[in-house]
Amino acid sequence: MTSWAAFEADAPAIAAAARRLLWVPGVGFGYLATVDARGAPRIHPINVVIVGGALLTFVVSSPKLRDLTRDGRYALHSTGSAEVNDELMLAGRAVPAPPDVDRAAAVAAAGYAVADDHVLVELGVERALWAEWSSPPRWPPTYHRWAAAGPG
């Protein structure tokens, strides 16, 4: 699994755009696509934080958590704010955050009340796509792509 820190080191321009697009003023926000037990896609709004080099989200007991626990594949999409035309897609695998992740720091970064039973999940980044639109927007946007290096 590729961490946010490794992605950011390997593709700093795309990671910087991702930070801008995920952080609507005051909160990290995007739409998370997961795969349900029948293999069908499912979409969920989520809040994300970056703490200690990890892209994290808190998840309540829900279909979203069951999807991520059973089959960690995800895609995350964000369009930023009304002032930004760019788009972002991240994809990878989600895993329960490892014990060394600072939950208290993630709670502080979240900016909203996080209950003790919310599960902290790390979103590994395997692929990224940033669609950079000109101003005024014209088709096509400039696409910036990144993929984690495969096994040796």
Question: Could you explain the architecture of this structure?
Answer:
The chain has 4 helices and 9 strands. It is α+β, with helices and mostly antiparallel strands. It has a 6-stranded antiparallel barrel with strand order 2-3-4-7-6-5. β3 and β4 (54-59) form a beta hairpin. The protein is globular, with a radius of gyration of 15 Å. The mean pLDDT is 91.
Q: What is the compact description of this entry?
A:
The protein is an alpha+beta fold and about 150 residues long.
* Strand line-up in the sheet with most strands: 2-3-4-7-6-5
* Main sheet attributes: strand count, strand direction, barrel closure: 6 strands, antiparallel, barrel
Beta percentage is 35-45%
- Label the overall shape: globular
Distance between the termini: 14 Å
Number of helices: 4
Roughly what percent helix?
A: 10-25%
Number of strands: 9
Mean of residue pLDDT values: 91
Q: How would you classify the helix and strand content by structural class?
A: alpha+beta
**Low confidence ranges:** none
- Rounded to an integer, what's the Rg over CA atoms? 15 Å
Topology order in helix (H) and strand (E) letters: HHEEEEHEEHEEE
Fold blueprint:
Layout: H1 4-10, H2 12-22, E1 23-24, E2 27-35, E3 41-51, E4 54-59, H3 63-70, E5 73-78, E6 87-96, H4 103-110, E7 119-123, E8 127-132, E9 142-147
Antiparallel strand pairs: 1-2, 2-3, 2-5, 3-4, 4-7, 5-6, 6-7, 6-8, 8-9
How would you describe this structure in keywords?
single chain; 152 residues; alpha+beta; six-stranded antiparallel barrel; 4 helices; 9 strands; 22% helix; 40% strand; globular
